Amino acid sequence: MSDILRQPAEVTWKTELDALAAHDDAPKPEGWALSPQATLTYLLGGAAKDGTEITPKYVGQRRLMETAVATLATDRALLLLGVPGTAKSWVSEHLAAAIAGDSTLVVQCTAGTDENQVRYGWNYAQLLAHGPSTEALVPTPLYRAMDGGKLCRLEELTRMGSDVQDTLITVLSEKMMPIPELNSAVYANRGFNIIATANNRDKGVNELSSALKRRFNVVVLPLPDDIDEEVQIVTKRVSDMAESLQLAVPKNAAAEVMRVVTIFRELRDGRTLDGKTALKAPSGTLSTAEAIAVMVGGLSQAAYFTNGTLDVDGLAPNILGAVVKDPVQDKTVLAEYLETVVKKRRDYADYYSVLSEML
Ligand SMILES: Nc1ncnc2c1ncn2[C@@H]1O[C@H](COP(=O)(O)OP(=O)(O)OP(=O)(O)O)[C@@H](O)[C@H]1O
Ligand SMILES: [Mg+2]
Q1: Ligand number, closest to the Cα atom of 225
Q2: Residue 52 C-alpha to ligand 1 middle, in angstroms?
Q3: In this structure, are residues 336 and 280 in contact, taking their beta carbons and an 8 Å threshold?
Q4: 285 lines ligand 1 (CB under 6 A)
Q5: Where are the domains of the chain?
Q6: Atom nearest to 197 CA in ligand 1
Q7: Which ligand sits closest to the CA of 93?
Q8: CA distances from 274 to 256, 277, 285, 316 (A)
Q9: 4 exposure class (CB count in 10 Å sphere: 0-12, 13-18, 19+)
């Protein structure tokens, strides 16, 4: 195992990508490492032509991934939108790994991101010594993606100011970026496109201007439809993460995933799974990603403190942390849920006692 904590997708899943590329005779857009069909197999799982198993990366509707992949083959860019924890960044990374063979050209957009971090910056020592020149120019991930015909990933696009977002308009419509200081421009090579992510539940976001919006095709990633799908996602990701963190997965992990996901879904939807009892929903999103984090936290506690026993004592504090984002309001919501629902369920007696004690 390498010492690097987390490798980019194209390294971690190299065997799968190589197997798909080796027998990829479907038509593919110029500049793409894999055909759209092979990209879809990589995302959704299946088998390569030589029999290599391709593990599913995204669990959900095939149609959404088809639209995402097809968009990247056009002159429009892709915007993955959704509440936190719906795998936007995850899908964006895998798309870039499969299509461009490189998922590392990322700009993390924040309120402090300025044009120099999007277009290009300057090495000031060089600039002062020799004046503006190509050597003094510091390329950004966007610049390098255009130059190398790759995909540039813009994480949380709506977090940066609208004026900075709008620098993308020329890049997306003319596929070039002027460099007035050098009286030149960088032209995008074939294979270049942009995948942006944005979440629609955040405070302090800057809406996209309509000029920019028109240049993106929006794919909304939903929360998992049914509980089986969500349990499948959590189980798979927890076992992947446990492996990379070298944590053992105890036998009862599957049953615990089921209980955690049940609690999360009921609170998120504001009603019990059987639809009979209405509940108040807490202020946070309680996404699949948080259910994964709760389980991984529990596994770590089990591995280092309780001799590998995964129980409610280890999981409940993580659940509490995920549910109670607003200390007053969410505590009431959770207390009500415990009293009206959890108390009556025999197989949740341990949750009832540990969580009520903690509240
Ligand atoms: N439908 C899904 N299929 C596969 N994995 C999923 C799915 N939904 C969530 N996940 C998992 O959830 C985790 C978090 O996803 P990710 O960080 O991409 O969320 P995000 O949408 O970018 O959230 P944020 O808005 O907070 O940035 C990933 O480990 C991913 O594997
Ligand atoms: Mg993200």
Answers
A1: 1
A2: 25
A3: yes
A4: no
A5: 9-217, 227-358
A6: 22
A7: 1
A8: 19, 8, 21, 23
A9: exposed
Q: Which residues contact 255 (CB under 8 A, 6 or more apart)?
A: none
Query: Any idea which ligand is nearest the CA of 88?
Result: 1
Rounded CA-CA distance 13/10 in Å is 6
Q: Say yes or no: CB of residue 289 within 6 Å of ligand 1.
A: yes
pLDDT tens-digit readout, 50-69: 999 999 999 999 999 999 99
Pocket test for ligand 1, best of 80, 288, 325 (most atoms within 8 A of CB): 288
CATH class of domain segment(s) 9-217: alpha beta
Q: Please give the structure tokens belonging to residue 124.
A: 């000031």
- Residue 299 CA: distances (Å) to CA of 241, 252, 257, 295, 305: 10, 11, 11, 6, 10
**pLDDT tens column, 285-335:** 899 999 999 999 999 999 999 999 999 999 999 999 999 999 999 999 999
Q: What is the pTM of this model?
A: 0.94
**Is residue 288 lining ligand 1, measured as CB closer than 6 Å?**
yes
Closest C-alpha among 74, 322, 87 to residue 220: 87
